[in-house]
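Record type: ASSEMBLY
Status: queued
Input:
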Amino acid sequence: MASLIFHVISWPTFVIALVVFGFAPGAVLRLVVLIFRRDDPRRRELLGELYAVPRIERPFWVIEQLEVALFEGLRSRVARRVPVDIAEAGESVGHEVEVRRLQETLSAYRDQIVRLIVLDAEEHGLEEFYDLRIELPWECPANVSPAPGQGR
Amino acid sequence: VRRTYALVQVAVALMSDPGGRHWGYELSKRSGVRSGVMYPALQRMLDEGWLADGWEDQPRAGRAKRPPRRYYELTDAGRAELGAVIAEARRDARFAPLVTGQAARGHA
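Status: finished
Output:
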């Protein structure tokens, strides 16, 4: 514990802290504003404001901006990302609906064609067609994709 | 916009000079609101059209060897809305001391 305290208050640590927060708050702030989106005017605004802050207050002001950036910057990034995710999910769902509708249409055509063939076969006494079945690719058990959340 | 302590404090600071340009750091000092709370409040006011923003002239910033600063100005709608916010705050027991205290400090 004593050695830990010694390291915390050691001269190199103190000098580094002084340089980072005391003499280079601008450099630290430049890193902090990267949390904001590229097109967020807050990036430029905070860099401009730094020089209006009295030098003695700058380290504390920069730390305060880290809080602002973490809450505001990250939130705006997440807020922008979520609608994109929803839209992408919507597109995916929309695609599945389209495919299912197409499959249903083709199945309906198949049923009508089979019915016509069977009727024709009955007229001509062709018994081998009485029990005609045509399976479309997505109706074969091997081709049926599992429902979401279920394995094959 | 929800009426909060921070909103009322920023409104009072802005309305102390309704036609002037307001700069972030000075506004924070004058209103006594931390920048972590003030900037989101300013953003909401911008979204509502109560404030307009702009950037300091590049030559002026260049002479001072620093990036240009962003300023905020009250719009006509903003003056009306923030005036109403302050008037309402004066009537509200929760905000009244805040508004009168700020006003007293502003006039001092």
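Annotation: The mean pLDDT of chain A is 76.
Annotation: Helices of chain A lie at 2-8, 11-23, 25-32, 42-50, 58-124.
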